[in-house]
Structure formats: structure tokens, C-alpha cells
Amino acid sequence: MDSGKIDFSALSGEGVSWTLLGTLYLRAWENRLPHPILGDRYAAEALERIDYDFAPLKRRLRPNGNQFLVALRARQLDDWCTGFLTRHPAATVLHLGCGLDSRMLRLDPQGTLHWFDLDVPTVIGLRRRLYPEQGHYRLVGASVTDDGWLDQIPADRPVLIVAEGLFPYLTATEVQRLLRRLTDHFPTGELLFDGLAPWTARMGRLFRWGVRDGHDVERMNPRLTLAEQVPITEHRDRIPLRRYRLLYDLMNTVPALRNASADYRFTF
Ligand SMILES: C[S@@+](CC[C@H](N)C(=O)[O-])C[C@H]1O[C@@H](n2cnc3c(N)ncnc32)[C@H](O)[C@@H]1O
């Protein structure tokens, strides 16, 4: 691993790639608690390595509860990953829109799996300095909407596809096309992602796709079967601070807020 500070000015501006710093920051913040939900110490370590002024981001994100949205979302996806990788220790993992997420370190999977972390080339250039390729761990710098990159991912094993914080930034047509390419390429596997309700997606400047219900995705791609759909507030009992647990209890009682964001698991 490169030990110097990493210059993140390439991510300046307000584009989609910049959002990875928000999720990284919130995971590091959540890790400060004595009993965190996710406990992502790698996020905290990565922040130390990044040369970037986080003060404006901190003012904007105000980690006053949204760190638990990010932690609950990631924890659910991690739990599903663990389940799949226990059943298929020699799988291929394809992690789309990985940003600086440390999922492969958090899960520390044993066995002979092949892990591919993909993001746009600028992000992969930065990520490479924090988490270099080694063994069966590979980095792919491409847009998920590009043709071609899938050809380098072997399709001879069950695949676990994880896309966290990615699909809301794609259009419905891009999501549909990507899902079709994925299910055409891999004979069998699982697809995990988080989605925003259409009304939530309309609130963000950068968001372009919202999903009402997992069955909408089955209609988009009949090869996918919805296995689980878990609202972000579902496991609010994991929140270690009482005042935020109560806030999430309240959110959970309002159907629109309960369904504002969910994690999805599909099989194919
Ligand atoms: C909100 S961040 C989430 C990053 C990471 N999954 C996490 O949870 O910290 C969104 C990520 O999606 C990536 N992204 C957005 N559009 C993309 C595309 N078309 N192809 C590949 N990655 C994309 C961004 O570069 C960024 O890293």
C-alpha cells in the first residue's frame, strides 16, 4: 500500500464521483461509536490518507442521523454477501460503483473467490493507491454503461453482484440495459443493490432513477427474481444511540418514509 497522502483534487466539483467521499465520511463517523452498526475501521483509516478539505462536506452532510442510513444500508448488504459467500466460497464478486468502500476487507472472505471492484477510471486511479490489486483482487476502471468491460470478468462461477449507492445515479434505461448485460453474461448468481423511492429520487439533483418496488425490477428484467426487499428502517434496533433509534422508529411508522430507501436482493 502507498503510504503518502493521496491528492483528491481530481474529485473536486460536484459530480457523481464526489459522492463517494460522503459515504466514506459517514462510515468513518459511524465507526467512532463504541457499538457501531457497521464498524468500518477501514473508512476511518482511508480518511486519514486522503488530502482533502472535509469541512464543507461535514457542514453539508451534518452527520446527525444519516450516518445510520449509510451504516444500516451497508450492513444489510454485507450480511447478504456473507450469506452468499458462505454458500459459494469459490464465487466471483463484482462490486459496481465501489468508490472507496472497503467491503472486501470488511468481509475478509476466505476461499478462492475472485473479487472485482469497478468504478469510473478517475476513482479507480485513486482507489488503487489505497487498495492495490493483489491475488484474486482486481480493479476495473470503466463506466458501468460502457460496453466491453464485462468481457474481462469470467462467467464460469456463481456471481455476486453488489451495487451500493450506484443505481439512483443511472437512468432507468441505463439500469435496464446494465441488468440485461449482466444476466446475459452470468448464468447464475445474486444481485444486491439499494434503491430510492421515486419521490426520494426526485429530491436529489444527481438522482435519476427511483424504484417503487422490487417487482418493478422483475418486470424490467424477467431473469431476476426478487428474494428480499428490506426498508432501511427495518433494522433500526441496531442503532446504538437512543435518540436516533426513536427518530427511526418514527420514520418507520410513516409509510412514505419507511419506503424512501430499501435494500434489494435478487436471484437469477
Ligand atoms: C454514492 S457513491 C457510492 C460509493 C460506494 N459504493 C460507497 O457506498 O461508498 C457513488 C459511486 O458510484 C460511482 N459511479 C457513478 N456512476 C457510475 C458509472 N456510470 N459507472 C461506474 N461507477 C459509477 C461513483 O464514481 C461513486 O464512486
Automatic annotation (TrEMBL):
<keyword id="KW-0489">Methyltransferase</keyword>
<dbReference type="Pfam" id="PF04072">
    <property type="entry name" value="LCM"/>
</dbReference>
<dbReference type="GO" id="GO:0008168">
    <property type="term" value="F:methyltransferase activity"/>
</dbReference>
<protein>
    <submittedName>
        <fullName>Class I SAM-dependent methyltransferase</fullName>
    </submittedName>
</protein>
<keyword id="KW-0808">Transferase</keyword>
<dbReference type="InterPro" id="IPR016874">
    <property type="entry name" value="TcmP-like"/>
</dbReference>
<dbReference type="InterPro" id="IPR029063">
    <property type="entry name" value="SAM-dependent_MTases_sf"/>
</dbReference>
<dbReference type="InterPro" id="IPR007213">
    <property type="entry name" value="Ppm1/Ppm2/Tcmp"/>
</dbReference>
<dbReference type="GO" id="GO:0032259">
    <property type="term" value="P:methylation"/>
</dbReference>
